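*** Residues and shapes ***
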Amino acid sequence: MVIIMKVKFIGESDPVYMINGKVYDVISIEKGWYRIVDEEGEDYLYPPELFEVIDEGGD
């Protein structure tokens, strides 16, 4: 799995899906949405307005 950038979730916490303030790895961008592996270990698309970009390089 290639990590293309790191983002911090700034939306409302849901321990099953995303936790506010936690940094997640973006594994792809599709039609402007971020594909991220959530707290269940599944990858889903999320709208970018729910995140703050931390590292555009992913390293």
Summary: The mean pLDDT is 92. The radius of gyration is 10 Å.
